[in-house]
Amino acid sequence: MRSALLTLLCFTSAALAANLNLVKEYSGSGFFDEWDYYGHWDDLTNGNVIFVNKTDSTSLTYVTPSGQAIVAIDNTTFVPANNPRNAVSISSQDYFEIGTVFVIDVARLPWGCSVWPAIWTRGNGDWPATGEIDIIEGVNRMTFNQMALHTSPGCSAATGTDQTGSPSANTDCSPLSGCTVKENKPNSFGDDFNNNGGGVWAMQFDVSGIFIWFWQRSEIPSSITGASSTTGLDISAWGPPSAAWPSGPSCNISEHVSAQQLVIDITLCGDWAGLNTTYAQTCDNSTYNACYLTNVQYQGTYTDDAYFAINYIRAFAASNATVVPESMINGTSSASGASGASSTGTPPVTISSGASSASSGLSGSPTGGAGSPTQTGGALGSTYVPAILAGVAGVLVITGLSF
Ligand SMILES: *[C@@H]1O[C@H](CO)[C@@H](O)[C@H](O)[C@H]1NC(C)=O
Ligand SMILES: *[C@@H]1O[C@H](CO)[C@@H](O)[C@H](O)[C@H]1NC(C)=O
Ligand SMILES: *[C@@H]1O[C@H](CO)[C@@H](O)[C@H](O)[C@H]1NC(C)=O
Ligand SMILES: *[C@@H]1O[C@H](CO)[C@@H](O)[C@H](O)[C@H]1NC(C)=O
Ligand SMILES: *[C@@H]1O[C@H](CO)[C@@H](O)[C@H](O)[C@H]1NC(C)=O
Ligand SMILES: *[C@@H]1O[C@H](CO)[C@@H](O)[C@H](O)[C@H]1NC(C)=O
Ligand SMILES: *[C@@H]1O[C@H](CO)[C@@H](O)[C@H](O)[C@H]1NC(C)=O
């Protein structure tokens, strides 16, 4: 991996002035062909869901006649009290080396009380040592997107960065919440995003840094709408990104973020959306377990708002050598490892919302510092707990990666 990386540094620098080539596209009828389905209850963020396996996913991931990829919450099953609802978490079977620019065109995002969707990337192996980049993420009735970078210690967000979003006060990317940036452009999440026809995100993963842009539908640059396998992609006129973590003295991105795979998921409640304080911020109810009790059980509240409609996800790079099949990545990913796992284990359904156990341990750790999540700097006190850290800290029983 290391030598591959160094080789790619040259590619990347050379590519800056030139158009990048389309090296991977997820779209149309084949959108879901090359993803792993988690196949396990949400032990990543303690949401009240079973992330179903591929066999059970047919009503939750599918392509519409017009070619949009749908990723949905189960909104038809009657869920008995204290049981989880079916949902999906999928991860790309390819990893993408540094030097990749992702373009994600989304027509609809899931939103609403208890709903916690994300489109993000993660490295293979230990979290957060291999890096995690949250491109699209929000909970409940939030009206803006929140982006984040998660790394091992030794990487912090530079100050005075040329970005249009608002970084959280915490600049260290290694604590549980990572270093977050709140989107300031309008219509980046929730009902407004959907009613506005959606929009496009681009994420550049480069030796020069990690950068995320967002454009609402009417403002998508022609360099993106006109990009094709023959023209490639020119990012030179995009202007300042919404979020930027430039490589420099505060963080060497090459050393902190390894090849990334894409992840798309929706969970319900859990360690962020279900936190008492977080849930009450936009859903006006801080009674015990309100997130689960009000939304998840019985017929549920997931009518027409709890699904992604994705037009495409594309990856551009100087060379398709940046696309690495998971079979070539050493150490099988947790996702593929878990795909064969049984989902018959016992998920801690009743408790996870509001996370009775979580609220004490978790909300102290993220952006807000001790006590409660905070909106300072715009970040809604997200709470991310990797298994490893949680286990060490004895805080919570969470295994695996987090958002
Ligand atoms: C960042 O790390 C890479 C890989 O170790 C190294 O080649 C590069 O020189 C570093 N960049 C800076 C600015 O230190
Ligand atoms: C708050 O949640 C509880 C538990 O689900 C529910 O009984 C109550 O009706 C909710 N209150 C409001 C105002 O939504
Ligand atoms: C259930 O979700 C689907 C998306 O998967 C949506 O099209 C449908 O309208 C929803 N059903 C109801 C009754 O709202
Ligand atoms: C990379 O591009 C070459 C030349 O177009 C092609 O032959 C090869 O199959 C591609 N590899 C992948 C993994 O897409
Ligand atoms: C992959 O990882 C295993 C265990 O860490 C190691 O024994 C093996 O040598 C590695 N293989 C390669 C090709 O790096
Ligand atoms: C998928 O999950 C269901 C429900 O847990 C299980 O019955 C089934 O055996 C699984 N299928 C595969 C192929 O793992
Ligand atoms: C949630 O808030 C309610 C009312 O403020 C409180 O009674 C309950 O103990 C809280 N639950 C947790 C898990 O913090």
From TrEMBL:
Enumerate composition-biased segments (Low complexity): 334-365
- Pfam families referenced in this protein's UniProt entry, alphabetically: GH16_XgeA (PF26113)
Instruction: Enumerate the GO terms in the molecular function aspect.
Output: hydrolase activity, hydrolyzing O-glycosyl compounds
Give an example GO biological process.
glucan catabolic process
The superkingdom listed in its UniProt entry is Eukaryota
- Give the matching InterPro entries: Beta-glucanase-like, ConA-like_dom_sf, Glycosyl_Hydrlase_16
Q: Which residues form a coiled coil?
A: none
* PROSITE patterns per the UniProt record, alphabetical: GH16_2
Q: Any idea which UniProt keywords this protein has?
A: Hydrolase, Signal
- Residue ranges occupied by any GH16 domain in the UniProt entry: 24-281
Q: Region (Disordered) spans which residues?
A: 334-376
N-terminal signal peptide: 1-17
Q: What is this protein called?
A: Glycoside hydrolase family 16 protein
Provide the species name: Phanerochaete sordida
